[in-house]
Amino acid sequence: MKSVEEIKGIIKESILIDRLELEDITAEEIGDELPLFGEGLGLDSVEALDVVAGIEAEFGVKLQGMDQGAIKEHFYSVETLSQFVHNQLAGEAVLE
Amino acid sequence: MGKNRVVVTGIGIICSLGTNKEQVISRMKRNETGIGQITRFPTDKFISRIGAEVTDYHPDLYFTDEEQRRYDYCSQFGIIAAKEALEESGISSGDYSLNRFGVAFGSCNGGINSLEEQGTVKELDLERTARYPFFQQGDNIAKHLGLHGPVNTINTACAASGNAIGYAFDMIRNQYADVMLAGGSDSMSSSVYSGFNVLQALNSSPCSPYNDKFGLSLGEGAAFVILETLERAKQRKATIYAEICGYGLSSDAYHETAPEPEGRGIQVAVDFAIKNAGIAKEQIDYINTHGTGTKANDSAELYGLRQLFGEEAFRKVLYSSSKAYFGHNLGAAAAIEYATTLLALREGLLPATLHFETPREGIDAANLIANEMQAHHVAYFLCNNSAFGGHNCSIVSYNWAAGERTVEAEELAPAKRVAIVGQGSVSRYGHGAGMIDFWQENKETVSSEVPLFSLKEYNKELYERRMNALSQYSIGAAHLALQDAKLSAAEQHSTDVGLFYGTSRGSLDSAYKYLSAIFEKGPEHASGVYFPDMVLNSTAGKIAKKLGVKGYGTSMSTGGNDGMMSALYAYETVRAGIQTHVLVGAGDEHSLLSTQVDAALGLADIDYEIGEGSAFLVLMDLEQAKLEGRDIYAELKGFGTVFSGQEKVEDEPQALREVAQAALQRADVKPSDIEFILIDGRFEPKEQSQDVQPLLELFPKGSVPLLSLNDRLGYCESAGSLLHLMAAANIMQSSRLAPVYGQEVAATSTLAQKPQGSCGLVISSSINGNYTAAVITNGYTHSS
Asked: What angle in degrees, to the nearest 10, is found between the helix axes of B469-484 and B538-547?
């Protein structure tokens, strides 16, 4: 199973940089605690849904139908998202 | 002469509830829904398995084998509905000249099925790929029925066919046509379904707008209405369903997929519609709302309406969304909803919102027609639609089933004159505000090795990540044109400025990225960030958002004269006094996929290289521009538009002559007043060629040089016609004519300063023989 650190790397490189094509920033420059939305990376709601799709594609977890509230909570930063994915992979978390 | 009143005298529908209007309305009266299991493609990877498909459909009943090869489902549905509407109207071949009979078509997804069938965007076959571009389906309908009046495809996604009905209304009211088929079509698409899936917009059970279960159900189908003048309808003793009294458009300028949360955009469209109809808002009895069922749409829409009508007054207005009957039919939604509203009203009934149980938070359902049709007396009613890209449309109609509408003779405000007050362009000659004058000093083209234009370098504030080249060029050109006009949409009342945009293909680079992910990885891997660019109005939506333009907003595709068609539409909107300022533009983008589409359309071996870029004009009420002391480039005197349906000019050379005649006549200008003709097309207009003889015979022999700039600009499918219009405005102000188009013009390349009152003619053409022409003059200082 992938470690949280590995998951962080994949999220930054494959999802944020490659999939969302974030510009003027490199994977290394994305801080673990940097908020993905608003003042942080400035992702919008459509990009958030694309991150959901990216997580599904990269990690094979099923998140479709996840509501906006849960997205806001778990998708706050690379840190929270990686923990969430890790828990999903470990089968610990149950989706609401 | 007063303006024509416009009435509906025929209806045709095909949708999940049936293949003709009798089936559809009888099932609606039984409160049945057409939403069921999707059968066209696997849905096991999606959050929803359902949709509103046309079931039990047998193309053999309607089309020959050869026609079935030529027409995709989108075209087929459109033709079926159009023919039904035509048949019901009772119009026979002798009633109208086919030159005065046009088609206004709306579509969200055009020929997307033709790419899906191939399952790749890499090595495409020519025949199916040629069916993909969004102007083909509307052109197919016009060709199939042999119609030669104005033909235009509106691509404003889920508002497209409502806008098409509005455009058709304008065409008749402003006497470009006597009768129009207006409507829309869209077929079920696996890649569109994938996009709504990734955006989590789909409902896992049949949708019920305003209900507490969120989500929409996708549908498919087509509807058309016949519009004609009240006068002729009465003469023919036709059955009149309704009178279209006015309509309104707007841009949210807010977000690519979500509506402005307080419904400001739809509010502006309704406000325009009611004002244009010349009625009071208190006269509206019923609103057929867009109501998709999504969380974002329904509450925003009703909030906007409550603000417009007032809380108290809105409680007196009945409303419902019809989408629970037949799903969200996207580009056909407005037409299907409009047509079925008319069918219900004919029987004294109002359409209902089915499956309704519990109103969602913030929704007052007291006046919602829920679960079954209700009998009500309705005189004036609205049909509203809103779209991705932020485009909104509202139509005000009067129900003739409630009795004949009598109005006092309209006091007509004199038509406004229309001036060009700003220009901006991005072309192979670089980007700039003001005149394109590359012929003046033999300017060099920019290297084809580097991107034509970077919006990020031009102005970082206007750029967004992943912005495709088409949007970059177009936002750049629009911004330059506004600067040139010393105009800021943000400083003006933003709803005073309209945006009319033409693009034949949208960004095929974005489409390529979106579709290749689906074709290669599977539909559940659709990209939510590229899906919004699959609708062609995405670029117009982005321009509106970046520049704060919130007035009339529309986007269209004609396959070559898109820019001039946008100019015609904008010109009529200013002329009618609806908007004082408008941005008119068009754009094209090169990409891997566009090269394949070029090959499929036979553009790989034309007389010119393929060009790209964008051109924008700012048009204004001429008198107001003069009062404000603005610099005026030229006055637009009049437009004409015809559709030959022939790909080759040589097969119908009369069309060039007819469009020129129409423009001259509407401009009230004599052929001898024309000093030059600029022509935009795929062909080189050689003066000795047979193709242009009928056109040239209109003018005194040898008096008018005929030029094309495409040997310099490249063939820019959509923007080319506006680049020619800009060039014409500049020629009017210059002492020299462009030394373009080889030797023929060398002899006439230096003309004396053109005297006041000189006119030029600009003609644009499409791949299917769609022509739009304009007369332009420097005589604006004289009052006419």
From this structure: 40
> For residues B323 and B28, is the Cβ–Cβ distance under 8 A?
no
**A58 in any annotated domain:** yes
A46–B199 CB contact, under 8 Å: yes
Whether B49 has its CB under 8 Å from any CB of chain A: the answer is no
pTM for the model: 0.95
pLDDT over 70 at B674, yes or no? yes
Report which residue type is found at B704: V
Phi and psi at B559, nearest 5°, equal 80, 30
Q: Where in chain B is the domain with CATH 3.40.47.10?
A: 7-402, 418-781
What is B7-402's CATH topology?
A: Peroxisomal Thiolase; Chain A, domain 1 (3.40.47)
**Per the CATH hierarchy, to which homologous superfamily does domain B418-781 belong?**
Thiolase/Chalcone synthase (3.40.47.10)
Domains contained in chain A, number: 1
Cβ pair A46:B529 closer than 8 A: yes
Joined tokens for residue B279: 């009625």
Contacting residues of B for A22, CB less than 8 Å apart: 465
How far apart CA A73 and CA A54 sit, in angstroms, is: 17
Per-residue pLDDT of B313-372, as tens digits, reads 999 999 999 999 999 999 999 999 999 999 999 999 999 999 999 999 989 999 999 999
Element (H, E) at B634: strand B634-643
Task: Give the residue among B384, B380, B319, B382 at the shortest CA–CA distance from B352.
Answer: B319
DSSP bridge pairs for B642? B771
ipTM here: 0.85
Pairing of β B374-375 and β B242-251 = unpaired
In this complex, which of B199, B255, B466 lies closest to A49 when CB atoms are compared?
B199
Q: Is residue A60 part of a domain?
A: yes
Please report, for the domain that includes residue A83, its CATH number.
Answer: 1.10.1200.10
Interchain CB contact of A23 with B (< 8 Å): yes
